[in-house]
Structures are given as C-alpha cells and as structure tokens.
C-alpha cells in the first residue's frame, strides 16, 4: 500500500470515528431525552470510596517501587545491569499477578460468590 493510499485509508477511519462520536452526541440532545444521571456508566461496588482509595495507595506504592528499581537499573553497569533489569522485570510480573488476583476477587464478589462463575479473561 502506497503512502498516499495509507493516508487516505487513515483519513477515512478518522472521519468515520468522528461521525460516530458526533452522532452519539446528537442522540443525547434529542428533545425529551433525559440527561444521564451523575456517575452514570460507572461501576459501583458498595464502599467504593474506601476500595478506590486503597487501590490508589497500592498503585502509588507500586509506582514508587518501580521508580526505585528503574533508577537502580539505569545507574548499574556491567553484570550488575543484568541483575537490575531482572529485578525490574520480576517486579512488573509480581505487580501484574497481584492486580489480576484482585480483579478476579472483585469479579467473584460481583457475581455473588456463585460457584462456577469464571472471571472473564483480562488479557
């Protein structure tokens, strides 16, 4: 595909997306239609404020830990550099597993703890 053809296809896609977004916005302005309620479309999980605050705190701790490891990795030289890279990768894997376990726990809680309800694949 030539450059100009690629630009044309890309422009067509952008135009289609813009048209869809505009059409959706116009539907919301139809006479007699009620505006969405405050917080509409957001998931509510009971005491969400506390849970969200805990999640934010945990994410900040994870970010701080990664910042620390990346700084050490960038400063390392020679064989120590390989060990520092491995430490960053291991931390990323650990944090991903923690996040996935948390998501699965929330899924089961949302489903009422019903046995046999598999969490959707988050991949």
Structure description:
With 123 residues, the protein is mainly α. It has a domain at 79-111. The protein is 70% helix and 0% strand. It contains three helices and no strands. It has helices at residues 3-28, 48-75, 79-110. The two termini are 31 Å apart. Mean pLDDT is 72; it is low at 24-33.
Quick description:
The protein is an all-alpha fold and 123 residues long. It has three helices and no strands. Helix 2 runs antiparallel to helix 3.
- The residue fraction in helices comes out at 55-70%
- Total helical elements: 3
Which segments are poorly predicted (pLDDT under 50) over 5 or more consecutive residues? 24-33
**Strand elements, count:** 0
From the spread of the alpha carbons, the general shape counts as elongated
Name the beta content range. Answer: under 5%
Separation, N- and C-terminal Cα atoms: 31 Å
Radius of gyration from the alpha-carbon trace, in angstroms: 23 Å
Secondary structure: elements and pairs:
Blueprint: H1 3-28, H2 48-75, H3 79-110
Helix pairs in contact: 2-3
Output the keywords.
123 residues, mainly alpha, 3 helices, 70% helix
């Amino acid at each position: 595909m030539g450059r100009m053809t690629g630009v044309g296809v890309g422009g067509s896609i952008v135009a289609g997306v813009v048209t869809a977004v505009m059409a959706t916005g116009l539907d919301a302005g139809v006479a007699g239609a009620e505006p969405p309620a405050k917080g509409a479309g957001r998931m509510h999980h009971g005491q969400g404020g506390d849970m969200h605050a805990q999640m934010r705190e945990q994410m900040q701790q994870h970010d701080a830990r990664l910042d620390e490891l990346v700084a050490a990795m960038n400063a390392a030289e020679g064989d120590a550099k390989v060990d520092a890279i491995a430490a960053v990768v291991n931390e990323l894997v650990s944090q991903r597993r923690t996040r996935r376990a948390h998501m699965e726990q929330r899924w089961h809680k949302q489903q009422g703890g019903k046995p046999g309800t598999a969490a959707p694949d988050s991949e």
